[in-house]
User: Which sequence fits this backbone?
């Protein structure tokens, strides 16, 4: 049976960083809803144009288009063994839709690591984040600097700062997380799938705790 892992946590807590590492180690596909939207924006698709109006404000993209995009992505052959979901689901309606689509794919959400960190730390990490233009590899000026300033270690592409990482937008994104996504914490706790991970530790220690949680 396929394995589906849902990484839950506030903006900047390290979902993308950890999903990239876990995907490399496990061979499971890394599905980031934010990266999929940014790819559509880069390619100027209709979905990208729609998503940009919401993302630039730090608002969630409507459920129907987000769910359709994820369904399409999860149907591809590289997700046959399962996937690490980073940034989806983010509302109760998305969680319900995920359950239904995984039923169709003869799978289910296996485990939901909730990564947590203090709000001041989230803000600092996003302020110092640098992202690669090619595929979204993640760096941090303080905690995870690239070998050469402004250049991705992995593919040599330019590093940029995300438009929605401006301080005012970050404050709003955190509020949106608390209002719209945090209800999922109780839901996944009630069904016995939630595992809390201390995201204040180093990247390596967070990975170790995640690998422990996934073994169970
Ligand atoms: P998305 O791209 O998913 O953004 P997010 O959830 O706000 O999360 P981030 O990507 O900002 O943070 P992260 O947890 O991945 O942290 P990272 O690993 O980069 O979504 C963007 C937008 O798209 C949304 O606002 C919305 O508009 C739209 N969207 C996406 N999904 C949607 C959905 N399902 N429904 C509707 N709309 C949706 O780490 C952050 C920084 O910290 C990096 O610099 C990293 O190097 C560093 N770092 C990481 N871990 C550590 C550590 N342990 N110690 C020190 N530094 C660390
Ligand atoms: Mg991310």
Assistant:
């Amino acid at each position: 049976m396929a394995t589906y892992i849902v990484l839950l946590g506030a903006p900047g807590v390290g979902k993308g960083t950890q999903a990239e590492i876990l995907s490399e180690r496990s061979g499971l596909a890394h599905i980031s809803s934010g990266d999929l939207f940014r790819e559509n924006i880069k390619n100027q698709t209709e979905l990208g144009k729609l998503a940009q109006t919401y993302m630039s404000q730090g608002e969630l993209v409507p459920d129907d288009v987000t769910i359709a995009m994820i369904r399409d992505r999860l149907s591809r052959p590289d997700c046959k063994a399962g996937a690490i979901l980073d940034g989806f689901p983010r509302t109760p309606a998305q969680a319900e839709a995920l359950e239904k689509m995984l039923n169709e794919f003869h799978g289910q959400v296996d485990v939901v690591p909730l990564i947590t960190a203090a709000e001041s730390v989230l803000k600092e990490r996003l302020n110092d984040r640098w992202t690669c233009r090619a595929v979204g590899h993640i760096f941090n000026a303080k905690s995870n600097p690239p070998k050469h300033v402004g250049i991705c270690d992995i593919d040599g592409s330019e590093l940029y700062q995300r438009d929605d990482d401006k301080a005012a937008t970050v404050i709003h994104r955190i509020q949106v997380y608390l209002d719209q996504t945090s209800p999922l914490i109780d839901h996944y706790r009630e069904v016995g799938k939630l595992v809390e991970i201390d995201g204040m530790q180093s990247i390596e220690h967070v990975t170790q705790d995640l690998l422990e949680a996934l073994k169970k």
Notes: The radius of gyration is 16 Å. The chain has nine helices and eight strands. The first strand starts at residue 3 and ends at 7. Strands lie at 3-7, 29-32, 82-86, 109-116, 129-132, 138-140, 159-160, 194-198.
